[in-house]
Amino acid sequence: MKEFLVELTTTVPKGTDPTEVSQRRSDEAVRAKELASAGHLVRLWRPVGELRSIGVWRADDEADLLEKVLGTLPLWPWMTALVTALESHPNDPGPTGWTA
User: Fold this and answer.
1) pTM for the full model?
2) What is the pLDDT of residue 45?
3) Residue 24: CA count within 13 A, CB half-sphere
4) What is the DSSP string of the chain?
5) Residue 31 half-sphere exposure, CB side, CA atoms within 13 Å?
6) How far apart are CA 52 and CA 46, in angstroms?
7) Which residues pair with 75 in a beta bridge?
8) Residue 8: strand pairing partners
9) What are phi and psi of 42, to 5 degrees?
10) pLDDT per position in the chain (100 positions), as tens?
């Protein structure tokens, strides 16, 4: 699988029932855990004070990432995504064991 850096911004449409928003957010957490277990979601961060996320995701290719991975997120219809394909860097130290 290839790796991608993905920046996701969610914009809830005005007038959306708060119950629907709450349910989708709850479903999103469940789906994220499933995608992590399947090896698609590697890491996920939220910049301090911002309502967007930045993550490392894995998929066979960008089309697969958008359709079969990110496209399965309950909040996907309200998201915009900036996707950057990644490749290994010769100076990458690899996993360091450090966690935040």
Assistant:
1) 0.89
2) 97
3) 18
4) -EEEEEEEEE-PPTT--HHHHHHHHHHHHHHHHHHHHTTSEEEEE--TT-SEEEEEEEESSHHHIIIIIGGGSTTGGGEEEEEEEE---TT---------
5) 15
6) 6
7) none
8) 53, 81
9) -95, -50
10) 999 999 999 999 999 999 999 999 999 999 999 999 999 999 999 999 988 999 999 999 999 999 999 999 999 999 999 999 999 999 988 877 776 6
Other CB atoms within a 10 A radius of the CB of residue 42 amount to: 14
CATH architecture of 2-86: 2-Layer Sandwich (3.30)
CA–CA separation, 41 and 57 (whole Å): 5
Give the residue from 36, 41, 45 showing the smallest Cα distance to 4. Answer: 41
Contact 69, 23 (CB under 8 A): no
If one counts every other C-beta atom within 10 angstroms of the C-beta of residue 56, the result is 14
Cα separations (Å) of 93 from 23, 51, 96, 97?
Answer: 40, 30, 7, 11
